Amino acid sequence: MTISVPADVLSRLKAVLGEGGWSQDPERLAPKLLEWRDRWYGTTPFLALPRTTAEVAAVVGICAEAGAAITPQGGNTGLVGGQIPQGEILLSTERMRTIRDVAPFDDVIVAEAGCTLAAVHEAALEHGRRFPLNLASEGTCTIGGTVSTNAGGTAVLRYGTMRDLVLGLEAVLPNGEVWNGLKRLRKDNTGYDLKQLLIGAEGTLGVVTAASLKLFPVLISRATAVAGVDDPQAAIRLLARAKEEAGGAVEAFELMGRRGVDFALKNIAGMRDPLAEIHPWYVLVEIASGEPGAAEAAMERLLARALEDGLVRDAAIAQTEAQAKAFWGVRENQSPAQKPEGATWKHDISVPVSRVADFLDRATAAMEAFAPGCRVAAFGHVGDGNIHYDVLRPDGGDDAAHSARRDEGSRIVHDIVAELGGSISAEHGLGAMKTHDAERYKSAVELEALRAIRRTLDPKRIMNPRVLF
Ligand SMILES: Cc1cc2nc3c(=O)[nH]c(=O)nc-3n(C[C@H](O)[C@H](O)[C@H](O)COP(=O)(O)OP(=O)(O)OC[C@H]3O[C@@H](n4cnc5c(N)ncnc54)[C@H](O)[C@@H]3O)c2cc1C
């Protein structure tokens, strides 16, 4: 799609943004036009780099008047291509990095959209608090991006997704007006909730400029373990037991298939096999508590019983922080470790937790029939029913031939997900990649209601026009 922007619009944007507030330099633009998986390459006539909410409002206002389209971008770690412009003006939040406030008595942090997730973690810790959204991309992804994709990650089991962690937002709406909704309230039952519309809107309903976020106490007792299990059904049974044993203290419950562990050992420097023997599936469990020793004791009870009755074949509890990091390293490198293995059909699906094993059996049988020799690597946040289900080309196979069958193969996987009552995007969003797929699974009634909301807020469809409905 080519979208041309009139020269007078560009000169007005330059005037409001001032020196350092914009760029048309190809070298400066290049890293913002290629996404992490090298799958999307974009173009833009203009990079806007506002530093304040007022500057964002001026940019959006000028574009709204002229009908010029905008793609917002934070850390450019999104995995569905929504942040990569295809001719639109690119609005980056990279200069909006102020932590506006940390309020321990309210358990709230107020951060601007361009703050990285890691910077918010650090600022919270400096005040003896914790912000519990954990993603492997935390050093780069931003608050604006995590709000706009309703990011999930590894602690959703306990704390929920970004949707559960946001108390208020400040945003520039598609007409250029600023909405200050930076509330700090735990209870606010006053009708429609505008912030929840903006969360997960992937930049289509405005530019998020700041967020007030919930903080939690730092937990002093933490236990991390890896367990080898025979199959995903055993993992699900272990999850149920972990919840019984530790109550609400299970922070993470992640599944990895052996193939993905092999890829990590082969393709990522410094990785170690988590257990002495090879197992078909691995679970990474983390329990955390505010009571000294409580997490460690719960983990020991859980694993001792599971080993005794054969639910778990082998297990190791991290004895040091370095060992816990090594366990997490294998999990967090599941996706990067696939890169050298060639073309992949990626899926980020969720089903009810009780149906994860059913999904894996059915999808893998279907993929082996559809693409003989393909290599399935499945891993993910099984505690949330969220599996990253990746289908790699056969070993030594042809990348182009595998990529050419992606749409057909993904359709089969997504149809199984739909039959099991699941979602074709658990946490990454739809972006440019999955919007059309999602239209297949949503009812006409829902699609029309969603389109009506967008038409009302953005009648000229200037905000991220290629994304969502
Ligand atoms: C190694 C790795 C691991 C990951 N792990 C996870 C994971 O466990 N869970 C998970 O949920 N995601 C994960 N992701 C995906 C990604 O990190 C998240 O989607 C993240 O929320 C994107 O944030 P960002 O700042 O990079 O946004 P971008 O990629 O820049 O943008 C993402 C979307 O948000 C929009 N957007 C960005 N900023 C704004 C704003 N201020 N206002 C309005 N719209 C905006 C963009 O237009 C785009 O549609 C992972 C990615 C990588 C590379």
Summarize the structure in words:
This protein has 469 residues and is of the alpha+beta class. It is built from 17 helices and 19 strands. The chain has helices at 7-17, 26-33, 53-66, 117-126, 143-148, 156-159, 162-165, 194-198, 232-246, 258-267, 294-308, 321-332, 356-370, 399-404, 406-419, 431-441, 444-457, and strands spanning 22-23, 47-48, 70-73, 89-92, 99-103, 108-112, 129-130, 166-172, 178-181, 207-214, 216-217, 221-229, 250-257, 281-289, 314-317, 344-345, 348-350, 375-381, 386-392. The strands form four sheets. Strands 12, 13, 14, 15, 16, 17, 18 and 19 form an eight-stranded antiparallel beta sheet that branches. Strand 8 (166-172) and strand 9 form a beta hairpin. Helix 13 (356-370) packs antiparallel against helix 15. The chain is globular, with a radius of gyration of 23 Å. The model has no long low-confidence stretch (mean pLDDT 96). Flavin-adenine dinucleotide binds at residues 36, 71-79, 82-83, 93, 113, 135-137, 141-142, 144-146, 148-149, 151-153, 202-203, 207-208, 335, 427-428, 431, 464, 467. Residues 36, 71-79, 82-83, 93, 113, 135-137, 141-142, 144-146, 148-149, 151-153, 202-203, 207-208, 335, 427-428, 431, 464, 467 line the site of flavin-adenine dinucleotide.
User: In oligomeric terms, what are we looking at?
Assistant: single chain
- Kindly report how far apart the N and C termini lie: 17 Å
Total number of beta strands: 19
Unique bound compounds: flavin-adenine dinucleotide
The low-pLDDT segments are: none
- Please give the share of residues in helix: 25-40%
User: Helix segment count?
Assistant: 17
**Radius of gyration, Cα only, in angstroms?**
23 Å
Globular, elongated, flat, extended or rod-shaped: what is the shape?
A: globular
Report the mean per-residue pLDDT as an integer: 96
Estimated structural class: alpha+beta
Characterize the main sheet: 8 strands, antiparallel
Strand content: 15-25%
